[in-house]
Amino acid sequence: MTSDFDNPRHSDMKPLDIQLLDGINNTPALGLAIRGWADCEERGLGDGTLNVHATMKAFLACAQNGREMIPAGVMTWEYDAALKRVWIYQSYVLPEFRGRGIYNLLWARMVEHAAIDLKAHSIQSATHIRNSAMRAIAARQGRFEECVVLRFNLA
Ligand SMILES: CC(C)(COP(=O)(O)OP(=O)(O)OC[C@H]1O[C@@H](n2cnc3c(N)ncnc32)[C@H](O)[C@@H]1OP(=O)(O)O)[C@@H](O)C(=O)NCCC(=O)NCCS
Question: How far apart are CA 12 and CA 66, in angstroms?
Answer without folding.
Answer: 15
